[in-house]
């Protein structure tokens, strides 16, 4: 207990002061949930959650006297927020009235009901490790459901029965998966059984809430254990069905493991290639959601493209193209933003590009296209491609690594010489129109693309030579014959 209090030392003055404010007004106040758990884990809590016996109106009056401003956007759920500004610093708190909600079991919309005691509030929380509290200002530890013992044992249990807890909010099953990844906990047998039995109830939870939990899982330091639980419990079938589908496939390059296992290894290796937080963009500072999603989903097109060849082999032709479309569809269904969907799908589409160029016989044209097709995603594509090498053949792995080293060196040279990030045709739209005597429209767009291809294939050739290439191309176009 002393060590936990020590972890709270930076905020103890705030805790005791705020607790005193509520106590003098005749109300209880407690620090609850994640901050208490994190203190026992030896972590300094990033956020503070408070619960109180005071009504929202009473809480607002106390916080108005304590702080510089208050807000009540969460009033319907009993939450009042406040901020205090002093000596150039700013302190923000949110306090929620004891809750004893009831749920309709269909839409997961609670009928908000305020509770009478701290113990009543704690029993409605998701897991015992989050159902611990510290009364303020006395710092009395409250743990009616054995959360501290469960934390020490590394076990994830629910304060009430798992069926009741997950029935109240099915998203708690996704939180269980996240806590496995974030905290290294293992679900108790009854929790795991309830997750398997109730996985289908996730259907009543909004895609946005499911997405947010999936993101928190993927951004954990080591998400693999959580993803394995997501799959084994049956939850993935309702959240990310493409993931368990990979278990049925054998990767033609890695016959000693299935594609599911390969994908998790690629994710692990991609995470190991992330740069430090706050580093330059080219280092891909971690945790990077786009890279991690691409690593996890890069082979999801394989089940749909599997073919058994006459000679006995298995092929997955164009699985990267199919996988990119599947990736975009799944991420859109989970309500990811457009930029994330586009970036992840593009990385999935490009992840095999490196292997199409043999053992390093890269022409300047091929290097230019690799860079321009990847665009700002190039640092992530570098890491995804390297992570995708999971072969146990040491000699093969070293050869692939050397080949990619050489590609990166070639890219650096060409970037210095040609500023590939801003490659454009050597004639702009107006100049193309003037050379061909045409007006803006689809034909001009085709001509522009042709000159861009010339630029990528041949490098800078000068405006005169570009105009000659354009006229040669134009002579073969049907529109040039129209008078």
List the topology elements:
Blueprint: H1 2-7, H2 12-24, E1 29-32, H3 34-40, E2 50-52, H4 56-66, E3 69-71, E4 79-86, E5 89-97, E6 102-103, E7 110-111, H5 118-123, E8 133-136, E9 140-142, H6 147-153, E10 155-156, H7 162-168, H8 171-183, E11 186-187, H9 189-198, H10 207-218, H11 224-232, H12 236-239, H13 242-245, H14 259-272, H15 289-297, H16 302-305, E12 307-308, E13 314-315, H17 319-333, H18 338-350, H19 364-374, H20 378-387, H21 394-418, H22 429-436, H23 442-458, H24 463-475
Parallel strand pairs: 2-5, 10-11
Antiparallel strand pairs: 1-2, 1-8, 3-4, 4-5, 6-7, 8-9, 12-13
Helix pairs in contact: 7-9, 8-10, 8-11, 14-15, 14-20, 15-18, 15-20, 17-18, 19-21, 23-24
Low-pLDDT parts are none
Helix content: 40-55%
Per DSSP, what share of the residues sits in E-state strands of 2 or more residues?
5-15%
Instruction: Give the strand line-up of the largest sheet.
Output: 3-4-5-2-1-8-9
Cα(first) to Cα(last) distance is 90 Å
This entry's quaternary arrangement is: single chain
Question: What does the largest sheet look like?
Answer: 7 strands, mixed
Structural Rg: 29 Å
Record field, number of beta strands: 13
Mean pLDDT: 88
Number of helices: 24
Structural class: alpha+beta
Shape: elongated
Q: Can you give a write-up of this model?
A:
The chain has helices at 2-7, 12-24, 34-40, 56-66, 118-123, 147-153, 162-168, 171-183, 189-198, 207-218, 224-232, 236-239, 242-245, 259-272, 289-297, 302-305, 319-333, 338-350, 364-374, 378-387, 394-418, 429-436, 442-458, 463-475; strands at 29-32, 50-52, 69-71, 79-86, 89-97, 102-103, 110-111, 133-136, 140-142, 155-156, 186-187, 307-308, 314-315. Helix 8 runs antiparallel to helix 11 (224-232). A hairpin with a 5-residue loop joins strand 12 (307-308) and strand 13 (314-315). The chain contains 24 helices and 13 strands. With 483 residues, the protein is an alpha+beta fold. The strands form four sheets. It has a seven-stranded mixed beta sheet. The model has no long low-confidence stretch (mean pLDDT 88). It is elongated, with a radius of gyration of 29 Å.
């Amino acid at each position: 207990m002393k060590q936990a209090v020590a972890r709270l030392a930076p905020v103890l003055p705030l805790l005791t002061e705020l607790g005193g404010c509520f106590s003098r007004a005749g109300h209880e106040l407690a620090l609850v949930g994640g901050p208490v758990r994190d203190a026992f884990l030896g972590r300094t809590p990033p956020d503070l959650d408070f619960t109180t016996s005071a009504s929202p109106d009473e809480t607002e009056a106390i916080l108005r006297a304590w702080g510089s401003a208050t807000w009540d956007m969460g009033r319907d759920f009993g939450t009042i927020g406040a901020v205090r500004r002093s000596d150039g610093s700013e302190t923000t708190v949110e306090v929620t009235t004891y809750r004893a909600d009831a749920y309709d079991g269909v839409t997961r919309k609670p009928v908000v009901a305020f509770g009478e005691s701290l113990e009543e509030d704690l029993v409605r929380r998701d897991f015992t490790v989050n159902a611990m509290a510290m009364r303020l200002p006395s710092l009395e530890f409250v743990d009616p459901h054995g959360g501290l013992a469960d934390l020490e044992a590394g076990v994830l249990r629910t304060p009430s029965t798992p069926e009741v807890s997950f029935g109240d909010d099915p998203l708690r099953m996704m939180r269980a998966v996240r806590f496995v990844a974030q905290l290294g906990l293992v679900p108790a047998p009854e929790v795991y059984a309830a997750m398997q039995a109730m996985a289908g109830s996730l259907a009543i939870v909004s895609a946005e809430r499911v997405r947010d939990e999936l993101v928190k899982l993927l951004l954990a330091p080591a998400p693999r254990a959580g993803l394995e639980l997501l799959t084994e419990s049956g939850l993935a079938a309702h959240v990310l069905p493409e993931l368990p589908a990979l278990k049925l496939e054998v990767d033609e390059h890695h016959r000693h493991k299935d594609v599911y296992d390969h994908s998790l290894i690629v994710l692990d290796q991609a995470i190991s290639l992330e740069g430090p937080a706050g580093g330059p963009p080219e280092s891909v500072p971690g945790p990077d959601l786009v890279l991690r999603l691409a690593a996890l989903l890069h082979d999801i097109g394989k089940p749909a493209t599997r073919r058994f060849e006459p000679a006995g082999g298995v092929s997955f032709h164009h699985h990267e193209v199919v996988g990119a479309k599947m990736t975009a569809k799944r991420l859109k269904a989970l309500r990811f933003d457009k930029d994330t969907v586009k970036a992840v799908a593009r990385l999935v589409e490009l992840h095999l590009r490196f292997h199409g160029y043999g053992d390093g016989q890269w022409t300047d044209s091929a290097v230019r296209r690799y860079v321009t097709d990847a665009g700002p995603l190039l640092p992530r594509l570098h890491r995804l491609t390297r992570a995708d090498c999971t072969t146990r053949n040491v000699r093969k792995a070293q050869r692939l690594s050397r080949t990619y080293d050489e590609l990166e060196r070639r890219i650096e040279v060409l970037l210095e010489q040609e500023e590939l990030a801003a490659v454009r045709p050597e004639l702009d739209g107006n100049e193309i129109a003037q050379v061909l005597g045409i007006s803006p429209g689809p034909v001009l767009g085709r001509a522009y693309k042709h000159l861009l291809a010339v630029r990528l294939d041949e490098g800078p050739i000068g405006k005169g030579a570009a105009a000659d290439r354009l006229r040669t191309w134009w002579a073969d176009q049907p529109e040039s014959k129209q008078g």
